[in-house]
Specification:
The chain is mainly alpha-helical and 360 residues long. 74% of the residues lie in helices and 4% in strands.
């Protein structure tokens, strides 16, 4: 302050104002200088739009009378005067019922997915009935190709995971059983747990993450490249050429993958039991048929067929819903895998309750 005039010096550009707390300090100083009769900006070194906006806001968007400006500074403030600041809109009022709307919107989305999935299932049933009436017209080459992709090419990963799970389960069970001197019960524990529950669920989760995402991505890319639209123009049914082969292929391949996973998991558990408890391989094999039973294998196959059809239907459902853009493709593939795995676990829980009520 010099004789009632506020003299500004230094730099008033973005670099100078970027220092932490600098804007607040300068605003406080400018507020204290509001009583000045005139302002002098000729001593400012560097002034850009950011610094000028700070002064312009402090001056209530009007240059005070008697302000000393250089020609460049005057031109800068003239530009600010030509483009006045818009008023900041008030904050929206707090909506305490927003969570109710979110729940309702989620329920509507779930209902819409359920309706579309039900229509997809109905279309598959009709297409499957046509296949039974006219088997020579069926897409057998595509079914064979899908069985190879979702079944044969998945043998490696399912074998690896199944073997490791069998080793881990056998190792942990052996530790607990050895405390009570009941190591011989590991055959029944490992056999039932693997054949009835772990084998089908593990195989289904792996297939959902591997093949389910692949099916969704394939159909989604067909949407992006407009191949689905071309099929509609040529009169080719999406259900008969895309959905039917994949559902049948997974319904065939999944039970086989479940048996394969069960066998490899039991092999891993048998080797771990021999190493941990000293149980012979011959004795393990001789006790395994009585410990597991054929009923558990039938339950395992039923779960395999159900899981395979479920994964294929979910993958096709989300694949057909993908919009022609890459963001929707990624979002749809993620939703497909998450929904398929969640459904597998839910179906497995329902089967457990059903078989328990039936005494099986």
């Amino acid at each position: 302050m010099e004789g009632g005039r506020c003299v500004l010096t230094g730099d008033w550009n973005v670099q100078a104002l970027a220092v932490k707390g600098e804007v607040g300090r300068r605003r406080k100083s400018l507020s204290a200088a509001q009583a000045a009769t005139a302002w002098d900006l000729s001593g400012i070194g560097l002034l850009d739009a950011v610094g000028a906006q700070l002064l312009w806001t402090q001056w209530k968007q009007k240059i005070p009378a008697g302000t000393a400006l250089t020609p460049g500074q005057q031109a800068l403030f003239d530009i600010l005067a030509e483009h006045p600041l818009e008023k900041v809109p008030p904050a929206p009022p707090a909506d305490w019922l927003a969570w109710v709307l979110a729940i309702g919107a989620g329920l509507f989305v779930i209902a819409e997915h359920g309706r579309k999935l039900l229509l997809l299932l109905g279309g598959f049933v009709l297409d499957f009935a046509k296949l039974l009436r006219h088997p020579l017209r069926g897409p057998w080459r595509e079914i064979s190709a899908q069985v190879y992709r979702v079944g044969t090419q998945a043998l490696g990963i399912t074998a690896l995971v199944g073997f490791l799970i069998g080793v881990v389960l056998s190792y942990l069970s052996a530790q607990q059983l050895a405390v009570f001197g009941a190591g011989q019960f590991i055959v029944k524990l490992l056999g039932i747990a693997t054949v009835r529950e772990l084998g089908p669920v593990l195989a289904a989760i792996l297939v959902a993450g591997r093949s389910g995402s692949s099916i969704t991505a394939q159909i989604g890319v067909m949407r992006v490249t407009q191949e689905l639209d071309a099929m509609e123009v040529m009169g080719i049914s999406h259900g008969q050429r895309l959905i039917l082969p994949r559902v049948i292929a997974l319904a065939i391949a999944m039970p086989l993958l479940v048996l394969w996973t069960d066998a490899v998991a039991l092999l891993g558990g048998m080797l771990a039991a021999k190493w941990q408890l000293g149980l012979s391989i011959q004795w393990f094999f001789s006790e395994l048929p009585d410990a597991v039973g054929f009923t558990n294998y039938k339950i395992s196959l039923i779960k395999g067929v159900t899981f395979g059809a479920w994964i294929a239907l979910i993958a096709c459902h989300f694949g057909l819903r993908i919009e022609p853009n890459t963001e929707s493709l990624g979002r749809g593939t993620t939703a497909s895998v998450v929904t398929a795995i969640t459904g597998v676990i839910l179906i497995d829980a329902l089967y457990a309750i059903l078989f328990n009520e039936m005494g099986i």
